[in-house]
Every structure is written in C-alpha cells, then in structure tokens.
Specification:
110 residues, 17% strand, globular, three-stranded antiparallel beta sheet, alpha+beta, 24% helix, single chain
Amino acid sequence: KVNASERNKVSIVYKLYTSANAASPHYVGRSDSPVGRISAHIANSGDCCQHRITHVEFTVVKNDNGRRNRKLKSYQKECRLYHNHTPRCNSIHPAKNAASWSCPKNNCQH
C-alpha cells in the first residue's frame, strides 16, 4: 500500500490480465502517478484488445539508497516485462522519459 505522502515519490510497473489463471499479461505499463494510470486502464479495459481486465499485478518502484532514478528503474523493468511477455495489447516498445535511457534488453535499439 502506498500512503498519500508517498504517491509523488514512487512509480509503479504493472501487468494487466484478463483472468486469474492467464499465463501472460495482456498489457504491461508503468506510471509515475500510480493511482490515475491503473484506474484509467481498468475503467477503459474494454479498449485493451477488446478484453475486460480482471486482474492487476504491480510493483512499487522507489529511488534506491544510491539515488538511482525511480523513473529510469521503472522504465527498465517495464522493458523487461515487454520483452519477456510480448503482451498482445502493447503495440509499441515502452517510451523513454529521457533520450539518454536505453532498453536493458541486449540488441534492442530503444
């Protein structure tokens, strides 16, 4: 659970599923404003490949002690999920927040 004072200090990386026993997510994403992003996806889940989202799995990402940027960490985590699962409803590679960021997947040009 993320309390109100931490909401602007965390990012989330999430996977959206169409059933509890789905082997792979239909969509993976990330957000630096967690509550609004997941709520919007669930409210409009009929738009996600015409399937209703029934389950959400997410990870909270914070700055680590070395002050590594939580936004960069969440981008890298989303990229790994994208490449590992190839979700049906992700039509493009996760977007970068900064031109200097690179995908952690070997040989990926993003």
